[in-house]
Amino acid sequence: MTDAWRDQWQTARDQAAAAWRARAPRERVALAAAAAVVIVLAGWALLVAPAWATLRAAPAQLETLDAQLQQMRGLAAEVRDLRNATPVAAAQAGLAIKAAAERYGDKVRLTLQADRAVLTLVNAGPEQLRALLVEARSAARARPIEAQLTRTPAGYSGTLVFHLGDA
Hints:
alpha+beta; 4 helices; rod-shaped
């Protein structure tokens, strides 16, 4: 099979060479120039253009990655601060989380159960939810252990369960 393929290839090359020699010199120059242009364009499209696009996009991607890195470093520092914070007794933590819940009026209901606090949210906005979580973690040293939230057009609804004391 290899010999047959080699013979066909040789026949095709011979026919192409004969067709090339049959052309006028002006046609040969034009065909060679057209082939060179096609090769250059294909080389650009396959080799240079993707690398060029990567180089153009790199500064914006680096900026985005730097912002994400700074955010992660900030979160890591916050975690270190929370770990080093002195624990709060369950009674004191309950009072702190109760004060936080009362700030949001009818959007947040609090139920205290021994060392747990259950917050029921009704259409709380994203900023309210974030602020409530930050305050529960920093002021009450409460650790979230369960969350069942749904997002509606009016805000978040559901329950958050926190462990109080010695977080």
